[in-house]
Amino acid sequence: MHTKKKLIVTALVAAFALAGCATTASAPKRADVKWPNLIVHLHGGNGKAYLVDPATDSVVATLDTEKSAALGGTTPDGRKVYVGAEGEGKDTVTVIDLDKRAVVAKVKTGNRPKHPVVSPNGKLVMVNYWGLDDGKLRVAFIDTATDKVVKNVDLSVAGQAKGPTSMHNAWSYDSRYAFTVDRVDNHFVIIDTTDWSVKKIKMPSKPHYVAPSPDGKEVWVVVEGEDRDKNPPGGLVYSIGSFEEIAQIKMPLIGQGVIEGHHGNFSQDGKYFFILNRGPGGKLDGTEVAVFDAATKKFVTRTDTGSTGIGHTYNTPDGRYEVVTNYGNNLVSVIDNTQGFKVVKNLAVGKGRMGHIAFTPDGRYGYLSNAGDGNLHKLDMQTLTVVKEIKTGNAAGGSQVLNVWTNVFEELPR
């Protein structure tokens, strides 16, 4: 074959390969995501971030963020963490460089930034807000290369803001679609970052949490619900691309004295979807974890936890366990996926509610944050016992603990 023709054929093959990659919304493989060698504990009470070395369980840096800086997101390369400050009067996203173990930027973005989440390709940080900006609900996008805001999408709202105006974000795995929620008018919001067009889908009650399916084909939206029978908590499922509704699922709410759907996430193998009943702010007594088949959208089973006001089910890296954290008490419930999704341990930890957990890459240990005592508690995942307390704050206000990138909250790279 002549050299010129060979070059043309090679270019065409490469072009087709790139086109195929562009249209396949597959999840990043585990090898594409770097696990940092640090655990980051955010402390909204004192406006600090504590960097912990899991090799020694020692605090190697204490950084100034902002008061109420409770939630953050890691870049896929494991180098940066972006932290929102959701408190009244706050407008700043703090940027932490994990290699430098330092705050490298403070980005003013909008009214009460809630939860920065980084796109799978690592280029953009989506930030949603608990307050309105000039009467509109903002979604900001920060360029990770410059740590500057490159786009504000300001959404018009018709209703009056009562409480948090948004909640949690997520990205499609191809980094094209940015997903968020409007809790003023109860919309699921899809932003196409190729042209910044916006699609809104009306929800039956307040939307709380968005979770794209691991295969990249669907997006599940958890709604809080308004009553037990006509408008219960559950989820709605949409196809990514057309965003046509595929299914609606409802929690059974057996023996639940209160109702309010909170978070939902997929099992690590993507076969099941969990939704938690938390209960409203004044009555954080919900205990039901409902399990659905991700393929058929059918209800599989349910379980009750010793943990109350349950909010989150965190996957362990090997996919065996779901660690349930909460807003009600200091019990952490561990669900074994290999034993019919039963609770195998209710573990008392620390002196306040259990908010979040981050794992070592091998899954041997988990680091639990406690909102009451403000510290980290090291959980041995083989014995399901707490083996150490690490002083990080040592006062009320302990918030998220995180390390590796995720495009949602409780799921890990696959």
Summarize the structure.
This protein is mostly beta strands and 414 residues long. It has one helix spanning 3-23, and strands at 39-43, 48-53, 58-64, 71-74, 80-84, 92-97, 102-108, 117-118, 124-127, 136-143, 148-156, 170-171, 177-182, 187-192, 197-202, 207-212, 218-223, 234-239, 245-250, 261-266, 272-277, 288-293, 299-304, 310-315, 321-326, 331-336, 342-348, 354-359, 365-370, 376-380, 385-390, 398-402.
Characterise this structure.
With 414 residues, the protein is mostly beta strands. Helix content is 5%, strand content 44%. The chain has one helix spanning 3-23; strands at residues 39-43, 48-53, 58-64, 71-74, 80-84, 92-97, 102-108, 117-118, 124-127, 136-143, 148-156, 170-171, 177-182, 187-192, 197-202, 207-212, 218-223, 234-239, 245-250, 261-266, 272-277, 288-293, 299-304, 310-315, 321-326, 331-336, 342-348, 354-359, 365-370, 376-380, 385-390, 398-402. A hairpin with a 5-residue loop joins strand 18 (234-239) and strand 19. The longest helix is centred in the N-terminal third of the chain and has 21 residues, at 3-23. It is globular and about 50 Å long. Keywords: Signal. This is Cytochrome D1 domain-containing protein.
